[in-house]
Design a protein that fits this description.
heterodimer, A: about 290 residues, mainly alpha, two-stranded antiparallel ribbon, B: about 375 residues, alpha/beta, Rossmann fold, 2 domains, seven-stranded mixed sheet, five-stranded parallel sheet, 12 helices
Amino acid sequence: MLLEQLINGITLGSIYAIIALGFTLVFGVLGILNMAHGEIFMFGAFVGVVVTSNGGSIWLAFLASIIVTSILGLLLEVFALRTLRGKQGVSHLAPLISTIGVSILLENVSHHLFGAGNHPFRVAFAEIKFEIGSVTVYLVQILIFVISVVLMVVLSLWLSKTKAGRALRATAENLETASILGVNTKKIILLTVVMASALGGVAGILVGMSFNSVNPQMGLSMGLKGLAIIILGGMGNVKGAMAGGLILGLAETLVVVYGDSGYRDAIAFIIIIIILLLRPQGLFGQKTSEGR
Amino acid sequence: MSKILKKPLLLLAVFMLFTLAACGNNNSESSEEKTSDGGKIDAKIGVISILSGSGSAYGEAITNGFKLAQKEINEKGELNIELLVEDSAGEQEQALSAAQKIMSDDEVVAILGPTLSTEMNVVGPEADLNGIPIMGTSTTAKGIPQIGEYVFRNSLPEEIAIPAAIKKAVEKYDAKKVALIYGNDDVLTKSGFDTMEKTAKDMKLDIVTIETFQKGQSDYNAQLTKIKELKPDLILSSALYNEGAVIMDQARKMGITVPFVGGNGFNSPKVIEIAGDASEGLIVATPWFAEKEDPKVQEFVKNYEAEYGLAPDQFAAQAYDALYIMAEGLKNAGEADRDALRDAIAEIKDLEGILGKFSFDKDGDIVMEPSVVTIKDGKFQLFE
């Protein structure tokens, strides 16, 4: 039974990790917390519900979700973030508030489009399972773990090896210098926000498949967990997001196994606080004193 | 602390003074209007419901129920009821300010709602102080009608519904071990859980585990895996349908096949819609049973479906009946007056509604016999 619980924990953790990856990308480059990320993720899940309930395959759902969330990311950058960037007298908190606004807007829009309440996510793919002894493993659970690891590896490689990745890191390091050195920072920032949003879309489909429940409020709780994870893993760190996600997912599950499910979130977050007390820069964060 | 409290209390007192004074003025005015209108009673009734946020699925059904009843009552011509709908968003503060807004309108004779018991706990005392009849249509937690003599409810309390369902299920399946799972951040599901735990103890059932979850959670696998391991004969689940349906879906996927017994919040056709086949084996006690062979019930279902394009649930049905109770009260009172209406409602005996026969006890609580139903072959059927 413990094995089954560990699988539950890893699945949950992998989902947290993918959501956290989206947060960490935007934070790493722009230095802002994208509070609308949770809602973009929720929108991605709803796109999946719409596609699959109309007979579309799960792959089509992935594709549609990525396209829609990418467009949302594009709109977010162009209307909510770019307009505030580099302007005189704009508080550094303004983009944060602006993304909160977008998140409230998206939640209400999806509320009107899809209605309140949970929507089932019915795909044959989600029913495929293996029985090993008394342990039931769903193919979706394996897929989620694999996707999260692949995404992490690809993202790390892309950031460190490709030209676009280097440009992105240069932009993250110093926007003005990168711009002087010939990096099209506008394009890079747009690319980052769109990529992060697409990751949210992927996570949305995965959550829909594994928990079979999609509702307009799911963005908030998942978004908060994602935020906690990037702080735990180290702001802007890809590996940290993955490790942080798995730690939180496993911690939440094990609290239920050995303790009381009423303290699930409380204990999981106490663990985060303890880790941060020991390593204030996060698990994978570097000790830097430079201000952004 | 006392300093912080003083100011709002003073304001409140002044505010209420005004409302009361205004109240008195209006009563004479409205009765004059009434007589000039040839016996037809005009009445404004305030509605507090959840129209936004996570509980708005309930608010939607409830306001639909009110509006359907309003349409039918007004068509009959004896009464002309106007509804004043305010959003509470499921928040206590917002429910209270909605109530104050409604109460400050002197023409309003009664309030229907709010949706949640948590909200009623703050709105009820306020309405009672102001002397305006208030009727909860979905507030099933303990102690609601005891708030004051102006507070009523027409929703069957869980202290009656849940034990009825558990007893029948235990008899049928010869259950000895039960597992409990409930939402610990909602007054309704918490009070449902208290009733379940008490009933299980009274029946000397072995409680193998008590698990909790929070509103809007989407992953219940950890709790359910734990329950599965303990092999209970029944799962007593105090959940609202939104969470409850997902819990059943994840439980069935995991290979948990035992029946679930739920409370009032779990009783909705939406469970079948969300969980599909996984909802088979849910047992609930309910005043509302859509398949009942009663022409009144069937007509309501037909009209509701025609109007809103979906099947009515318990919440819509309770709301529908509540407005009819108000209408009956107004007719008996003969005038649109808050105090006369209160007395008239308290005296209602065996009023035929779609839920059954309504009477109120001395506290203003409903007296009614529930039917126990289960989901079988994709629909609610009588549980025998």
